Amino acid sequence: MISLIGLPGSGKSTVGRQLARKLQLPFLDSDHLLEQRLGCSIRAFFEREGEARFRDLEAQIIDELTQSGAGVLSTGGGVVLRPDNRQHLHQRTRVVYLNSYPEELFRRLRHDKNRPLLQVADPLQRLRDLYAQRDPLYRETAHFSMDTGRPSVASLVNMIAMQLELSGFKAL
């Protein structure tokens, strides 16, 4: 299994779908699976139950998904906050960190109202804070890191596929 990690808006779902298609693997999105189980949006659950309860449920999903066999897994941006998640991802999957800088993410996300952690007075500063907090955790968890700034999605997918192939990764 291949897992994609990175900040909200770094392209995990978009890149993950295309990478899965290219490698002819199933695509899994931990946030979408969480929403299906919760019966509501992550934002609504966050507001009602809080981040700690959300992270508990996210950890259960990550534990399950990282044991589910071949596929490409897109994770939530905060998945690395829990040591168990980092361990499960790193030990059970091949982890690719989609590294996006806060200014780049702000340009992509400034009108997105569905990301609970960015519904603050200064979303750019929030992204800078998230990057400072999470970047070391992403790097600790990842087997590979890819900057998302310049390349197109297709180029990024090809670079990831090539990196996986060079590392000896076998899709099936």
Account of the 3D structure:
The chain has 172 residues and is an alpha/beta fold. The chain has eight helices and five strands, in the order βαβαααβαβααβα. The chain has helices spanning 12-23, 30-38, 42-49, 51-65, 83-92, 102-109, 123-141, 153-166; strands at 2-5, 27-29, 72-74, 94-99, 144-147. Strands 2-3-1-4-5 form a five-stranded parallel β-sheet, with helices on both faces. Helix 1 packs across helix 8 and helix 6 packs across helix 7 (123-141). The longest helix has 19 residues, at 123-141. The chain is globular. The model has no long low-confidence stretch (mean pLDDT 91).
Percent helix? 55-70%
Query: Mind describing the biggest β-sheet?
Result: 5 strands, parallel
Radius of gyration: 15 Å
State which percent range the strand residues make up: 5-15%
Structural class: alpha/beta
Q: How many beta-strand segments? A: 5
Shape: globular
Strand order of the largest sheet: 2-3-1-4-5
Uncertain runs = none
Mean pLDDT over the residues: 91
How far apart, in Å, are the first and last alpha carbons? 9 Å
What sequence of helices (H) and strands (E) makes up the elements?
A: EHEHHHEHEHHEH
Number of helical segments?
Answer: 8
Per-chain topology:
Layout lengths: L1 E4 L6 H12 L3 E3 H9 L3 H8 L1 H15 L6 E3 L8 H10 L1 E6 L2 H8 L13 H19 L2 E4 L5 H14 L6
Parallel strand pairs: 1-3, 1-4, 2-3, 4-5
Q: Any key phrases for this structure?
A:
172 residues, 5 strands, 8 helices, five-stranded parallel sheet, 55% helix, alpha/beta
